[in-house]
Design a protein that fits this description.
226 residues; 56% helix; elongated; 4 strands; four-stranded antiparallel beta sheet; alpha+beta
Length: 226
Amino acid sequence: MNNNILTNFSFDSTQLSSSSFAFSILLSFSLSYLLSKLYKSQSHSLSNPETLARVFPILSIGTTIIIAVVKSSLALSLGLVGALSIVRFRTPVKEPEELTYIFLCIGIGLATGADQYSAAIIGLLLTSFFVYFYNWLSGRKKIQNLIRISVNGINPDEINTLISILSTNCLRVNFNNLSVNNSTKDRFTTMTLSILPNRFIDIDSITKEVSAAFPNASFTIVDSNY
């Protein structure tokens, strides 16, 4: 009787093919690596894209492994639903673009883990095409968020020097506010501007040039949405 009960409540399962599983992981890594290259070259985010792009292959492979395992067992798939219900991501994704690329990574993992190789490859190719095509229609390779720089301790006659340094390294320089303290002998000035660097790496050039031009001043650089 016990054998009959076990038979009635058993779940169908299939043996996971080692060759198919290895190919799924290899393809998942390859496609997610290409997606990371796409993200780094076409990202609209001003934050360093290298940090997020580095986890794309790992995320995609992890998804592939999960799908490859649970697709062969209904019991495991039901257990996965319960396990994922307790997962909490405590670090918020700041920009929607980051969430979109993470979702694409998961999609690649789902497709390769379910042996839908054509869907994964064609999906990535079409996604890459439309990303480049949309950026071409926008007339600009990258549209980044503005960042804010606040310089404290410069003299009023040094304002043009500051603007010149920023204009050399930035696509845009927008004025925010200017505060002059007349109570001190040197009339120290605080100036805040919103800037759009030519490239992410130009933030380093801006930092060095401002430090060299105003050694006695202090300044901060933050995201304008912070």
